[in-house]
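Q: What would this chain look like folded?
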Amino acid sequence: MEEVLFDKMQKLGLNLYESKAYATLLKVGTANAYKVSKESGIPRARIYDVLETLTKRGLAMVEESSENAKIYTPVPSKVFLEKTKKEWENDFEDVTNALNKLEMEADKRDIYVFTVKGKENIISYCRQLLRDASQYVMVSMWNEMYELLLPELEECQNRGCKILGVCHNIQNPMDGIEIHHSGKYHDMTEKLHWFIISADGRKLLYGYSAETDRDAFYTEDVSHIYLLEDYIMHDMVINRFISEYKNEEKLSSMMEDILTKMGKKQESW
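A: My prediction, written as structure tokens:
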């Protein structure tokens, strides 16, 4: 448990010895350097430097006893954490502004498609797209991704952003999301799930569904965005056509004809 705590404290800007010394002071209260060294396991040759650093950083207070020995008292953890939080927020704001300025200054003539790898990164990109959207979001995805992103989709809709699209294998979809018809006639050989998210016609993320832990692709290229938004719109129209006119068999026949000409075999899930 302590090792995990020390790891997290180091992320707040302390090194390992500083983390151990401060935690020890909080646990034992006022103490001299010998006691802090003994309780924390910090070598005696290092303990004075470590405690001096804590004092300079405002995490400990020092006074001399009647025997001229230095006695250290920890600053309450609430004070330390509030100070650290404020510093982090200020640094975060400064870095955010600086990075945004760099992006705005960058040459935007070259449009790229970036690969996003791994489940956590893909989900983070999706959530950021949904937070940034202001007008509309178009989606095509399966139930796993839909459930992961539902809180962000709902928040997006609540602030007035239109949500449109189709999803597979879901129940009770939110307004604007349609349940994809059960037929699936043309698919990847591996039969892996995929997703598409387009935000305001400006940013696009698409690829393997996050739970597959494979790759997705991010772009701001207008041709990519147009083609995949167009795909979603056509899928919505076909979905409504089948639902209203019960033309599943006719669609299957048309798809079979197209796939035959492509030399592919029709499949149905």
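The mean pLDDT is 85.
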